[in-house]
Specification:
heterodimer; A: 111 residues; 12 strands; B: 111 residues; mainly beta; 5-stranded antiparallel sheet; globular
Chain lengths: 111, 111
């Protein structure tokens, strides 16, 4: 079975802290994605990556950066967390048919 | 840009049939996906349409009309476990390989 694993299910951070959200897939997929999901706004694309060391901005990249040093790992970084970044963060990996497999999500609260 | 519209909420009773509509506007359409998301869980893939017509998969079917920018997801013989959010997502070549999601339709099935 295809698997996407997100390192933390729940995090609580303070304003200004640096936050790392890790995502690992075991399917040798080239394409990986970070979305955030908020009530009434749905899933919004933050960043995606076509391959190792490649990254592309999504619809809402401000305040975020990403790292893809290895094919299986795609990290989302909040350099200085703010309260408006409190959200559910979903990582996904895409197969050749275009289907996304999502991780279980990381619920981040910024105080 | 892209725009995807679907109803916010729908209700239905067990055993009934429900149709969830999705309309979209994109400049480079390259496929439409439906995902199911139970509360507190990650979205899971339901169906994919790239050509016009109906795709059937057990109790679930999905229809696409590219000329009308329209899709629907049809759920038959509804069960309580079908209570979930249903997400319509479009792949647009102008947006790379990423999926752009609608805000989702929350379906409540009652007995």
């Amino acid at each position: 079975d295809v698997k996407v694993t997100q390192s933390s299910r729940y995090l609580v951070k303070r304003t200004g802290e640096k936050v790392f959200l890790e995502c690992v897939q075991d399917m040798d997929h080239e394409n990986m994605f970070w979305y955030r999901q908020d009530p009434g706004l749905g899933l919004r694309l933050i960043y995606f990556s076509y391959d190792v060391k490649m990254k592309e901005k999504g619809d809402i990249p401000e305040g975020y950066s990403v790292s893809r040093e290895k094919k299986e790992r795609f990290s989302l970084i909040l350099e200085s967390a703010s309260t408006n970044q409190t959200s559910m963060y979903l990582c996904a990996s895409r197969n050749r048919g275009g289907v996304l497999t999502f991780g279980a999500g990381s619920r981040l609260t910024v105080l | 840009g892209q725009n995807i519209d679907q109803p916010t909420e729908m209700t239905a009773t067990e055993g009934a049939i429900v149709q969830i509509n999705c309309t979209y506007q994109t400049s480079g359409f390259n496929g439409l996906f439906w995902y199911q998301q139970h509360a507190g869980e990650a979205p899971t893939f339901l169906s994919y349409n790239v050509l016009d017509g109906l795709e059937e998969k057990g109790r679930f079917s999905s229809f696409l009309s590219r000329s009308k920018g329209y899709s629907y997801l049809l759920l038959k013989e509804l069960q309580m476990k079908d209570s979930a959010s249903y997400l319509c997502a479009v792949r647009d070549v102008q947006a790379g390989t990423a999926l752009i999601f609608g805000k989702g339709t929350t379906l409540s099935v009652s007995s």
